[in-house]
Amino acid sequence: MAGCGDVSKLVRGLGTKTFFLPDSSGPFLDAGAGRSEIVDVSPEDQTVTVGTGTRIDDLQHELARYGQTLPIPTDDWGALLRGVPGTVGGLIGANLPHALAAQCGGVKDWLLHAEVWFKGGPASSGAKVVKSVAGYDVHKLYVGSWGSLGPVLEATLRTWPIRALPKVEAVRHSEWGGGPFWAVRTLRSMFSTYEMGVGSILASDPASCTLWVDSEPPRPGEGWVLGPAGHRWPEPSAPRLTSRLKAVFDPEGEWR
């Protein structure tokens, strides 16, 4: 993972979410060719340590042998409501909404420990236990970073007992064909009104006030929109903070 001169790299696993990027042209670091092993499953602690090149489907299959699961909907609910699963690294880097977010939280809530690529070498943050006083949760900055701070190499995630997984409250309105889509989240007080004014709804989740749509939706007033080709609303509110993070984690501009 040496530097690449003036050309910054994208971190890519299976490529299931690249349509969200403003520029998905190469060069790439193929995360799927990296660490793809399941390092440790601890059902008594409800944790799993895994290489981030591991496919989500493979991880879920292995966890099921222990009666455990990552708290996202099952295959029956389709890829859209499962957060478009690819690899564990993509789950962390994209942090897409899923249909159990209201009941079980998101990846930032599950990520207990990570080994990341930092200034030319691996570095660790967090602890491989649910309750920890391991200091700053630096690893959580990588959640939703889309690889811009560099790759996550290994992660320890909290798991749920399969029998305790909550009921999915989402509604599927139409079939998702696998193409670009927009995800919208609103305030609870405005969700029903906003939903009535949006066309081309693929799915909705009243529990988390999230909509998935296949054409650009109106801005919800308060909330957020995530869409293809780098569409983000509102715009990042702290570009200065983002620049400082890049200066610390990626001073040579190796990742984008």
Walk me through the structure.
The chain is α+β, with helices and mostly antiparallel strands and 256 residues long. The chain is 18% helix and 25% strand. The protein is built from seven helices and 15 strands. The chain has helices at 56-64, 78-81, 88-94, 101-104, 107-110, 191-196, 239-249; strands spanning 10-12, 28-30, 38-42, 47-51, 68-69, 111-118, 121-126, 152-158, 160-161, 171-172, 182-186, 201-205, 210-213, 223-226, 232-233. A six-stranded antiparallel beta sheet has the order 10-12-13-11-14-15.
Q: State the distance separating the first and last CA atoms.
A: 14 Å
Number of H- or I-type helical stretches: 7
Task: Specify the structural class.
Answer: alpha+beta
Quaternary state reads single chain
Q: What is the helix fraction of residues, given as a range?
A: 10-25%
Spans of 5+ residues with little confidence (pLDDT < 50)?
1-5
- Tell the overall outline: globular
Spell out the helices and strands N to C: EEEEHEHHHHEEEEEEHEEEEH
Task: List the main descriptive attributes of the protein structure presented here.
single chain; 256 residues; alpha+beta; six-stranded antiparallel beta sheet; five-stranded antiparallel beta sheet; 18% helix; disordered N terminus
List the helices and strands and how they pair.
Blueprint lengths: L9 E3 L15 E3 L7 E5 L4 E5 L4 H9 L3 E2 L8 H4 L6 H7 L6 H4 L2 H4 E8 L2 E6 L25 E7 L1 E2 L9 E2 L9 E5 L4 H6 L4 E5 L4 E4 L9 E4 L5 E2 L5 H11 L7
Parallel strand pairs: 1-2
Antiparallel strand pairs: 3-4, 4-8, 5-9, 6-7, 6-8, 10-12, 11-13, 11-14, 12-13, 14-15
